[in-house]
User: What shape does this take?
Amino acid sequence: MRRKSRIPGREECLKILLEEGVNSNVLRHVLKVEEVARDIAGRVESKGYDVDEELVTAGALLHDVGRSVTHDVSHGVVGGRIVRRRNLDERLARIVERHVGGGISREEAVELKLGSLSLVPETLEEKIVCYADKLVDGDRRVEFPETLKYFKEKLGAEHPAIKRLEDLDAFFKETLLEKEQGNPL
Assistant: This one.
């Protein structure tokens, strides 16, 4: 009989990262992403949205668990496999898979040999973790324009991922966090 999937707490997430062998740079990064993701989740909740904070915390901490194996674009898919192998919640596996860039379309996933599933964030929790990751460079909080500039230089200004990143930014700024003065994302 298969164990029921679950969401690990913060300490267990940190233990998983160490057991899987992520390096200290990745550990510092995920801790900063957790901090930013929790802030965004709280601000989103204050606008009346229902956010699973436990899922956001675990997703932020484990989003780069696949970097224990690879640092290329496949680290999200690899991380999703690690989460499933550990019988953790499927929603957590999807957060891990869908955090790369602004998400990866089904067509791009096939081209990149990542499988044939859409890896674009869909749920609020997936979007929060994906966006928080884009607001952290290493263990340093950055503004979104810095991240967008990086991706434009890396992928080209016309790459479809650029529009997904811009849409993700607009989703949080215009829809959820509008009119917050003096407290930029």
Q: What stands out?
A: The longest helix spans residues 24-45.
